[in-house]
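Bench notes, afternoon.
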Amino acid sequence: MANILVVLEYDGTDFCGFQRQPNGLSVQECLERALLRLTGRETRVVAAGRTDAGVHAWAQVVNFRSSSRISVADWPAALNSALPASIAALEAREAPEGFHARRCAKRKAYLYRLLNRPVRSPLEARYAWHYPRPLNLESMLQALQAARGKHDFSAFARREPGDRRSPVRTLSEARCWREGEVVNVLLEADGFLYHMARSLVGTLVEIGAGARPAEDMAELLRSGERSRAGATAPPQGLFLARVDYDCEHLRASFGRKFE
């Protein structure tokens, strides 16, 4: 059986997240339904990141095994004929046998978009957090500087009961910039804890709005206490932007790069 890698783009607004859930429709369920329709077989897919409900992706990497006669070059068109309009397969390739979309990922990059103007936008409502008050980007950049590097990110994560994963992650890139009325926050790390990106953004916005000093970021990281950090930012502004692989099975980057 071939190990097929597919890069997906999707609008996460109407999904309960990527991963199958008992309480709603997921991106994974839609993809596996499409594979069943195309191949006549139940097929399990694995994703690079389990995006939350309402979170979008410019480049979600998945892999699955198939003995279908569909050629690698034809997989995107075949999938797009069976997927809903909110999900699109951008490209496909045959991956080595040992490739696993999640375990082999070396880095992931998320972009968070804030619409920073007094009046909300009906056109941006699904793709940005409307924040009407002014934001001080200099303070936000100062706070992000403290967040870079290897830290225990417990203060910025929602830990589920029984979760034994280490809360230590390395944030290799963390910056923000303004494009017109939109403030972008880019976070790149070797892995993200549950709600980590959105919790960092929620705290960052409080700093940018002057509700807390930029120096709080370092203190929060040291504390490890989620209750002391800011609220979790809403999901609609978050995009899985890029996934990088650098292992024996695959060396490649999928998605967007930001200068």
